[in-house]
Every structure is written in C-alpha cells, then in structure tokens.
Amino acid sequence: MEVTRRQALTAVAGAAVGAAGAVGAVRLVEHLDESTPLPFYGSPVSAVRPDRSPPSARAASVVWGGTGEERRVALTFDDGPHPKWTPRVLAALEAEGVPATFFCLGRNVRDHGALHHDSVGHHELANHTFDHPDLGRHDWAGCRDQITRTSRIMEQTYGATPTLFRPPYGHVGGAAVLAAAELGLTTVLWSAQAREDLVAAHPDGIVDDIASQVRPGSIVLAHDTGGDDRLVTIDRLRAVIARLREEGYAFVTVSALLAGSSATATAASHA
Ligand SMILES: [Zn+2]
User: Fold this and answer.
1) What is the structure's pLDDT at 33?
2) Which stretches of 200-259 are assigned E, i.e. beta strand?
3) Is 78 a catalytic residue?
4) Model's pTM, two decimal places?
C-alpha cells in the first residue's frame, strides 16, 4: 500500500487495526490531532515497520549530550550551508581554532555544498534532512527518504557519509527513530541553545545566556542559516567561545564528545 508523505494512515472509526486484513480498512488524513485515532502501524509515531517486517537495526541511539564531568562542549550549527551566514561562522571558528558540527540540509548541500569543502576533516558534517520537514508528521518511508537523500548527496559532495542525524525542530516520532537507526545514524538533539529571542533587547546578553546553560558534555544548538536574528549569535561567536574557554571548556565535534563518554557514538548495530 502506498502512503504519500505528509499524510498519515488512520484506521476508519471502529476498525480493529490489529485484525487480519485491517490494513485495507484505512483512510488517509492530512494531519494527526488529538481526536485522530492512531493506527498500530504506519503512522509517524510507530517505531514498527508499516509492513511488520523485521527492523534492520537492533537498537537506536538518541542523545542530548555527552556524559561525564569533563569540561568539553560541542558547538552545532543547523540548516546550512548557505552563502549568507555559513562563511562568517567558519571564519569565527577558524580564528578561534575551534571545531564544530554542522547539521546540513541536503538541498543546501546540493546548492551550496562547496562552502564546506575546507570543513572536511576539521569540522563534522551531519544530516539534518533534505528540506527540513517536521518528521513528527512523516511516516517511516517519508523519514527514510529525507535521511537517505541527504546522506547520499553529502557522500557525493564530501566523500564521507554522515553518522549523526538531527531531526528538525527536535521532533521525533517512532518512525524517525526507526529510520535513523536503520540507516546507521545516531539521533542528536541538544542540551543548550542560542536563544536570540530572549536577548533581542540586549543582544550582548547572548554570551551570558549560552554560558549559563552549558555544562560538561553540552551540545549547543545554533544556526548558520536563517533570519537576521541569527546574527545575534553569529556576530558574537568568538565572544561565546572566549567565555566558555575562560570557564575551562574545550571544544570538540559531537562525535568526539560522544566517543569520550558513555553515550554511544556508534551507529546502532545492524541485524
Ligand atoms: Zn533546523
């Protein structure tokens, strides 16, 4: 049965979804709200394959940060690469000699991939879907498609396949967890973030605000693409780095952070 993306399978009212043959008794809805009954299989929240075939992964890894008390932090930048801000972020990182992890959109790698040619082997390049959908509304096939197309174009462009995946908006349903695990990716959220909206009236406050959130093992979310409010952080990136250095933090990529902690950085084992 074909299920289009951005739609979810929903059992017709009263249908026993688990009953044999019930898979035919479905209708498609545009979205799920609280009154929508969730089907056992095939919806964005299901971590079971829609056809109930065995998963090709035995476990999933979802992390918000590294563990342990070592003062290490990973800076991450989402949604690029894009000519507008990415070069400014790279220049600030280079000036400070700091590695970072970039969660790239496949469509931006396709259109602006050359921006990261010097990043290979220094920064970490990771998967942030192809065009930034809300995977909380995508079924297993839709999630697989978004992740696969992005890894493929990143491999073609940079010669390496990403091992980390970040879901847009931090939205993960069971389908996204399963798809990422089956594709060998660790799902990476964050434990601190640039909150430009909180410091709009006093943008220099971004330094204090980020520093106040950082703990040993923190993964810090920021963006190298987006509206002008992103510049609050981008223009003060060197100051943020300097502050965290004063507080004893060393900067590492996400994979290095996870490799040095009990959280696994390795992909889920494949069946
Ligand atoms: Zn994003």
Assistant:
1) 73
2) 219-223, 250-251
3) yes
4) 0.84
Q: What is the Å distance from ligand 1's center to 39 Cα?
A: 28
For ligand 1, the distance from its centroid to the CA atom of residue 168, given in whole angstroms, is: 5
Structural domain harbouring 14:
1-40
Q: Does the annotation mark 145 as catalytic?
A: no
Question: 259 C-alpha to center of ligand 1: Å?
Answer: 24
Do 71 and 180 have their domain in common? yes
Residue 166 lies in a domain: yes
CA distance 168 to 48: 21
Specify the residue for token string 């990043």.
119
Mean pLDDT per 10-residue section of the chain, whose length is 271 residues: 38 35 43 75 93 96 96 98 97 98 98 97 97 96 98 98 98 97 98 96 96 98 94 97 98 95 43 35
152/243 same-domain check = yes
Catalytic residue among 116, 123, 138, 223: 223
Model pLDDT for residues 177-186, shown as the tens digit of each residue: 999 999 999 9
Residue 75 lies in a domain: yes
- Determine the distance separating the centroid of ligand 1 and the alpha carbon of 219, expressed in angstroms: 15
Give CA separation, 85 vs 27, 230, 248, in Å.
Answer: 44, 9, 28
Is 267 part of a structural domain of the chain? no
Q: In CATH, what number is assigned to the domain containing residue 121?
A: 3.20.20.370
